[in-house]
Amino acid sequence: MNAIDLRSDTVTLPSPEMKQAMMDAPLGDDVLGDDPSVIRLQEMAAEITGKEAALFVPSGSQGNLVALMTHCPRGREVILGESAHILFFEGGSAWTVASLGLRPVRVDSKGRLDLAEVARKIRPDDDHFPRTGLICVENTHNQAGGTVQNEEDLAAVRILADKHGLPVHMDGARIFNAAVELGVPVASLAAYADSITFCLSKGLGAPVGSVLCGTREFVKEAHRNRKILGGGMRQAGILAAAGIYALENMVDRLSEDHANAVHAAEGLASIPGVTLSPPPETNLVFFTVDGWDAPVLERKLDDAGVRCFHEGGGRIRWVTHYGIEREDINEALGRTRAVLTNSK
Predict the structure, then answer these.
(1) Would you say 77 and 131 are in contact if contact means Cβ atoms under 8 Å apart?
(2) pTM (two decimals)
(3) By CB neighbour count within 10 A (0-12 exposed, 13-18 middle, 19+ buried), where does 19 fall?
(4) Average pLDDT of each block of 10 consecutive residues along the chain (344 residues)?
(5) What are phi and psi of 194, to 5 degrees?
(6) Are 173 and 281 in a shared domain?
(7) CB-CB contact of 142 with 280 (8 Å)
(8) DSSP codes joined into one string, 153-210
(9) Which residues form the domain of 33?
(10) Which of 249, 279, 304 is the last residue of a domain?
(11) At a CB cut-off of 8 Å and minimum separation 6, what does 89 contact?
């Protein structure tokens, strides 16, 4: 029985065409600044996001940490959502590596910051307090269910940040999903942030890498911080070529993932006891099942060849991605229905 892997869009495998692009990539030493494929990827990323410059990094977590380190001297505080990926899933690196405080605020069901609370948590100019250094937003928002923040949502954060003279960083790991869902250019969303990190290795299907974008001055300092974190890669053009191929060929197809997520959600909702939590906006599907312990259900589904994650709070997560077709979703739904029916 073949396994249908819905754990994450990070499990995508590069297409034959992407592999060939990697094999054919012109190479140099990126640490010395002369890898032509890395240079091209960074130029493309900067143009797509509407920023002056960009920096190729090994991972989204490193990209976010480099951004925080570049925006904030040690001892500053970063305001972010209480369910932010930076807070929960990046190993506490802001604390342990960068000596930065993370100051969480409430978010709504779509992952949008409670701006009144943000305003209250911006530190006054007083020697007794640490200084606030940065506000972070996340788009799409992982823990909220792949929800999208639109230009109006992001503009409200920008206005508040400008009022207090603070920069904004966007964890845009899945920003292309947000842009495709909204039907707007990525640059229209990135415009409200001073810096943005996006992943090549999620829905875009590349095997490795993320890109951090911002002003030329910001990226120059970010380059130093990447070096401090050991993120300098030599003939990195092999990996950058996959990113180039992804940006040229894998963006428009994200709408297929979104359609498959809706189809999966509709099928799950038809199974007695299943509740969507919430209905999907992009490629993430969260649901709960009455009477089931989520870790137990995850194991049962894995035994049935449906690989997924339990996300806490009783929720199971499915993620649609490149390599998952409509027939795979239908098969996963059938196996899930059988598990829920036969195990009672």
Answers:
(1) yes
(2) 0.97
(3) middle
(4) 94 97 98 97 98 98 98 98 97 97 97 98 96 98 97 98 98 98 98 98 97 98 97 97 98 98 98 93 97 94 96 92 98 97 75
(5) -75, -30
(6) no
(7) no
(8) HHHHHHHHHHHTT--EEEE-TTHHHHHHHHTS-HHHHHTTSSEEEEESSSTT--SS-E
(9) 11-249
(10) 249
(11) 61, 142
What separation in angstroms does the CA of 179 have from each of 45, 151, 281?
A: 14, 10, 12
Q: Give CA separation, 248 vs 21, 44, 119, 242, in Å.
A: 12, 9, 40, 10
Tell me which residue of 218, 209, 280, 221 sits closest to 245, measured CA to CA. Answer: 209
Instruction: Compute the distance between CA of residue 290 and CA of residue 168 in angstroms, rounded to an integer.
Output: 40
Strands 195-199 and 168-171, bridge-based pairing: parallel
Q: Out of 213, 233, 249, pick the residue that ends a domain.
A: 249
Tokens of 283: 């490629």
Q: Does 1 map to a domain?
A: no
Q: Within this chain, do residues 160 and 297 fall inside the same structural domain, yes or no? A: no
Q: How far apart, in Å, are the Cα atoms of 163 and each of 105, 122, 160?
A: 18, 11, 5
Q: What's the distance, CA 54 to chain centroid?
A: 17
* Whole-number Å distance between alpha carbons of 175 and 333: 28
